[in-house]
Each structure stands twice: as structure tokens, then as C-alpha cells.
Amino acid sequence: MTGTLTIAGLGPGDDALVTPEVTAALAAATDIVGYAPYVARVRPREGLTLHPSDNRVELQRAGEALRLASEGRQVVVVSSGDPGVFAMASAVFEALEDNPQWQSLPIRVLPGVTAMLAAAACAGAPLGHDFCAINLSDNLKPWTVIEKRLRLAAEADFAIAMYNPRSASRPEGFARALEILKEAGCGGRMAIFARAVSAPDERIETVRLCEARPDMADMRTLVIVGNSATRRVGRWVYAPRQVR
């Protein structure tokens, strides 16, 4: 039997937001590989082997998935949200580049609903015009790069979606990100704190950036800072389609 490797996005949390294509891939899998909390979202069944691992071993995880597929297994690597957005798709292709003997394997990437898009939908339409996404984790890039990108995004008047804003090991990073955006003149912009989107403990809070505090975010929070034209209409927040 020919092995396959599928890299699938499980969406932000609610099973209703998992695409039918991903559901079908999970049903056909012999092996599920991924970060332990994401693997735990896949229901165990006969004939399915689960391979949970820690959150900082992406390349080892990708290599294991490729090896299993090369042995004839039907492997699905799972990520939350979309696998191509700060997730496992890049790690798999990085591992594939280092292991050319596996480059003939059938590989698919199946998209998922990102945390950014799920959060924006809960708030209204804050990404209705040009926007960017920035990962605030400095595990794989220096903080100086993050600062530069934040400043340039503010200067370009993008709406900014910020992933991984504040962890226990680096609580100072998000505080500095807020300072940079305020220094760039964004203090009056809308800031949406979307925590645990689509989960039972979901919480959406919108404030002006000048009122935002670092402790309003953790690693389950997606933060969206609107552009200069972003406004409220009732309880909704949206970015006008027209630039003046």
C-alpha cells in the first residue's frame, strides 16, 4: 500500500468549523501526528494510532510523519486553525527539504479556519480591508524583527492580527508590542482581544489600544488591532471597504 501524508487544519476549536475535507482525511488515517492538545481533538478508534508530542519539536514531528508515510501509512499531521499559518505545513516541507528520499511521497495540505478569521467573524469585519498577521513569539525569529514588522505595519496602516501574544515564559513581549504600536500613533485604534474563539469559554473584548493592558492576553488569545478607519456599529467592529 502506498503511504500518504496529509497536513490538516482542525480550525479554532469547535468541531462544526472542521471542514468536510479534513473530516474525511481523519476518517481514512492510520496515524495522527501532532502537538498533544491537537491530537487529543481526534477521537480514538480501532486501526488508528495517535502520536502526540510536545509543542517545540516541530521538525522531529514532521520527520516522524514523513517516515511513517514512507512505510505505507496513511498519516495526517494536525494543526489548529490552518496548517499553513504559523503551523505544521512549513515544518513538514522544511523536513522534506532535508530528506530528499521522501520527496516523491503523495502530500496534501488541507486548509482550516484560522484563529484570525474566526476571531474577526466574532467581532464583525475588522479585516475587511488590507491586513497582516504577525506572530509575537520570538522562538524562531529575533525580537528585533518583530519590532520592525510592527512599526512598518503601523506605518502602512494595516489592520494587524497578532498570534501568540503572551506566554508565561515571555510576558514582557506583548507589553513591548503594545508600547511600539502606541508610539507609532495607534493608540486610538480599536483592539480586539478574542480568547478561546468557538470554545465554551470564548471571550471577545474590544477596547481602544490606549486602554489595552498586557494581562488582557494569553496564548489562547488572538489580538486584532484595527486600521485607522476601523469603527464600531452597534456591538460590531468593521473596517470600511473604501480608503480615503
Question: What do you see in this structure?
Answer:
The structure is a single chain. The chain has 244 residues and is of the alpha/beta class. It folds into two domains: 4-113, Tetrapyrrole methylase, N-terminal domain (Cobalt-precorrin-4 Transmethylase, domain 1, 3-Layer(aba) Sandwich); 116-238, 2-Layer Sandwich (Methyltransferase, Cobalt-precorrin-4 Transmethylase, Domain 2), CATH 3.30.950. The chain has seven helices and 13 strands. The radius of gyration is 19 Å and the shape is elongated. The termini are far apart. The model has no long low-confidence stretch (mean pLDDT 95).
State the CATH class of the largest domain.
Alpha Beta
> What would the average pLDDT be, to the nearest integer?
95
Query: How many individual helices?
Result: 7
* Strand ordering within the main sheet: 3-2-4-1-5
Instruction: Provide the CATH topology of the largest domain.
Output: Methyltransferase, Cobalt-precorrin-4 Transmethylase, Domain 2
Tell me the span between the first and last alpha carbons: 59 Å
SSE ordering: EHEHEHEHEHEEHEHEEEEE
